[in-house]
Amino acid sequence: MSEDALFPLELVKPETHDAGPRLVAPGAVHIPGWLTVEQQRWIVARFGEWTQGPVPLRAATLPGGHQMSVRTVCLGWHWQPYRYTREATDVNGRPVLDFPDWMVRLGRKAVEAAYVSGGEIDESLSALATDYTPDAALVNFYDDGAAMGMHQDKDERSNAPVVSLSIGETCLFRFGNTQTRTKPYKDVELRSGDLFVFGGPSRFAYHGIPKVFPDTAPDGCGLSRGRINITMRVTGLS
Ligand SMILES: O=C(O)CCC(=O)C(=O)O
Ligand SMILES: [Fe+2]
């Protein structure tokens, strides 16, 4: 099936029409079941291609020497702690794959869904959807007890929203505040197909993944075990 057919101008998703957007914090919107199962499966197939691309999945090593349990492959720009580069200089030095056009369109739809058509209706946030153009994606893979500690996404030189998509096993997503990596925070379950957008006043909120629940990937999502998370960002780099 073609990209245009899978991600048409108007997303028609009768099976998820009742799963409404939820405001988690100002500027932070969770839309359960946003991707159809067919879209999830198609993205999982692309994930298989990305991981066979120039740069393999890798677990980043933090400056203190600690290796992350999550493995990541990047599109557009390569993220390494704590900067973006065009070449994966901490892996094999090769340039990362281009950021796909379909993902730009999907990212824009996501921000519209969160801030314009159904989520948080707020003029300053709605404006963020107009020409949202993500240029980097971190595609994270969680398996075997992988988790991600509380952190801010702050290596971008832009305060444009972050768009997060989840496929596969359900996880616990801890969404905190912009001041500390501790309480107050809200715990949200992100399931296969869910969209989470955080921007505006929540753009620099601490967040993390304390836990992924094994054996919870739904039939048909394309992944029998593990969890894929795509976070799209605007780097502000050129
Ligand atoms: O896996 C997730 O849902 C979050 C990933 C994340 O926070 C990141 O890649 O910066
Ligand atoms: Fe993050």
Automatic annotation (TrEMBL):
Q: Which PANTHER family match?
A: ALKYLATED DNA REPAIR PROTEIN ALKB-RELATED, NUCLEIC ACID DIOXYGENASE ALKBH1
Record-given protein name? Alkylated DNA repair protein
Q: Which GO terms describe its cellular component?
A: cytoplasm
Q: Entry's SUPFAM superfamilies?
A: Clavaminate synthase-like
According to its UniProt entry, one GO biological process term is: oxidative RNA demethylation
Q: Where does Fe cation bind?
A: 151, 153, 207
Membrane found in the keyword field:
no
Q: Which Pfam families match?
A: 2OG-FeII_Oxy_2
Limits of the Fe2OG dioxygenase domain: 133-236
Keyword Oxidoreductase in the entry? The reply is yes
Task: Please name the gene that encodes this protein.
Answer: alkB
- On the tree of life, the source organism's domain of life is Bacteria
Q: Which cofactor is recorded for it?
A: Fe(2+)
* One MF annotation (Gene Ontology) recorded for this entry: ferrous iron binding
Keyword annotations of the record = Dioxygenase, Iron, Metal-binding, Oxidoreductase
How cofactor binds (record note)? Binds 1 Fe(2+) ion per subunit.
